[in-house]
User: Fold these one by one.
Assistant:
Number 1:
Amino acid sequence: AQTVTQSQPEMSVQEAETVTLSCTYDTSENNYYLFWYKQPPSRQMILVIRQEAYKQQNATENRFSVNFQKAAKSFSLKISDSQLGDTAMYFCAFMKHREYGGATNKLIFGTGTLLAVQP
Amino acid sequence: AAGVIQSPRHLIKEKRETATLKCYPIPRHDTVYWYQQGPGQDPQFLISFYEKMQSDKGSIPDRFSAQQFSDYHSELNMSSLELGDSALYFCASSRGQTNTEAFFGQGTRLTVV
């Protein structure tokens, strides 16, 4: 079974600074996908960034980037130039690769990190 | 742009009653997923459908059933409701069974009293 662990229940960062959220996972699979989702106070789940395990290059989406260490089973999210609108719960998630190709559509979430961006 | 629509947004039911949650995926999306997020918890996968067939099954209680209809909307039926069923229920959709990008609806908040 796969598990996702986020060891930081809460974090705080000053506006315009950089913050890194940690995530580790456990799996015996070789092919899989990793995600960071954001859940603001509205409770809407929003995809922030996605990484395919077979890609060595770290994914980047504007101010958001990941540090994917496959051997260490680590998948951290770096938010640069933090903005007040980044305040949210951030969930790390894992999706298994289907044997015959593609995804399983089943996300396994970590327990989340509540990020507060301070003005 | 059209998003995933869930109805109702809020629902209050008594114990042992039945509830039906509806999900309307983004147009041309053929895959639907259901997740349950308890208070202060991470979302838990319940079930998914691709082209009206069950695709994957997670920790969905036997009291719950779901289906995807010919117009691709999905319904989650919950019977014999228990206090512990109180949660935020998310529906998400994607296009194609192998597409990893799922778009979430705003959720239905179910309160069982």
Number 2:
Amino acid sequence: DVKVTQSSRYLVKRTGEKVFLECVQDMDHENMFWYRQDPGLGLRLIYFSYDVKMKEKGDIPEGYSVSREKKERFSLILESASTNQTSMYLCASSLPRGQGLLYGYTFGSGTRLTVV
Amino acid sequence: QQQVKQSPQSLIVQKGGISIINCAYENTAFDYFPWYQQFPGKGPALLIAIRPDVSEKKEGRFTISFNKSAKQFSLHIMDSQPGDSATYFCAAGDVRGADGLTFGKGTHLIIQP
């Protein structure tokens, strides 16, 4: 069963901490994405990557960075966590450009991050 | 930011009824319109998707209707069942995969037995 795995289901961090959220996919997908999900706001794109060591800003990149050193792994980094970053974070992967989105995204189950 | 506007925010339907969720988009460059279904504790999963070269696509009890001139599309769930209770997201994007998908804010659907 192919899947996207997010390393933590729940995380509680303190304001100002540096936080790493890890995502691994086993489908050999080129594209990987980080979204945050908030009630009433839907899913908002933070960053995405089309290839190893490549990254693109999404709609809400402020306060976040990403790392993609290996094809299967895409990390989201909160440089200095703040309470307004309390949210559900969803990682997704998809087939590459050209094949595009016809097979959709595969999402992980999410990491619920609370910053106190 | 290109928006996708989704309504209603929540919806209660009796078992056996028709559930209808609507979305509108702004960017005329979008050419791929999927719907995702999310159950509690799970990530969203692709339910059904449509390209703008057709006005309707049906898969089982789920149908997407697409109106290109109005820049609107909708999800119809026929014979709604309690197992359909979930949050539904519409989305829009470039089928080539550029720039990711833009999602609506979601509809919390409850099917009452």
